[in-house]
Amino acid sequence: MNTTYFMVQSTMIEIAKQKGALLTPTAFQAALIAEFGDVDQLCQEVRYWDLQFQPLTVMPEKRRVAYLVQGTCGHFELSYARFRQNLDQRGAPPAGKLTFTIPGPTLRSLWWCGKETASNDVLVYYPGNEWRSISDKDFEVYLISIPLADFASYSARCGMPDADPRLLQTVFMAPQSLLAQAQTVLFPLLMPAPYFDTLKLDGLVEDLIGCWLAQTGLKPRKAEPHKSKLAISKILEKIDAGETHHLNIPELCAGMGLSRRALEIAFKEKFGVGPAAFVKSWKMAQSRRLLMQADPQKISVADVMAEHGFVHVGQFATDYKRWFQELPSETLSRSPIGSL
Predict the structure, then answer these.
(1) CA separation (Å) from 263 to 6, 57, 136?
(2) Which one, of 287, 82, 85, lies nearest residue 189 by Cα?
(3) Which domain holds residue 298?
(4) Structural domain count of the chain
(5) Are residues 207 and 260 in the same domain?
(6) What is the pLDDT of residues 229-281, one digit of tens each?
């Protein structure tokens, strides 16, 4: 692999000469620094991103779901996130920004936009493109965003002034040296009062874009999808379409010539839970959201159960309390509509 784009120091010196810049630290302007015990609260308070997360496993009582740091330094948007629960994640990235997601030390793999990514893959979010990922129970990431309009100047520095980011792959493999550089440059996000050298941030972005451009000629291998992958895709499609009420997993497996055991193994390998638990987690999360937004004078817990295909009242109440540390009736009674 060409190593010219890793010459960070010489690039930074040249930029400093051209701009008359001084290697002085710049304060981080924090927009959000918080721990979250609830996924919905996280989605409501997060900055820059439009998120919709769903828990896939029960969160142990009194344990935090996530720790999040977000803010700006110069024209860079910087974030650090660590999640401690299996999550079905989807949303839209920052408007008008090109965002790079660098894996942290605990991230092993991630199912992202239909791809299985590895611990040395950098993910690229293009503005306006919705995404979906499913994560393991403990992973962390660093993120750095730049104005989309700045991409042309960075690509010109890398010798490809006409590159179009919309035509590039959304995942690229980074060498360990670049990942270590990124984690070192962005590590101040974990400190109480972060300061950053904006030239190092600038150099990091140039190196990330250089690595990205260097792999433009790589083509992913085209392989016939395995039956288990097709079944997983079918289940996710039905969930997205809201067709979980009559989703029959044994029938789906039989129709595709796939054993239930094979699908169970494939789901657990990718998402950490089996298909039935995955579907149930989605239905539980949707039930909670409906209860939180319902008018107690017009909608009952039984109505919400029927909406999402739950039949046994006692089992639903037990499962709900195990997931959310309160009974469904308590959630409904706290609905802001009912308090008006």
Answers:
(1) 43, 18, 18
(2) 82
(3) 227-333
(4) 2
(5) no
(6) 888 888 888 888 878 777 888 888 888 877 777 888 888 888 888 888 888 88
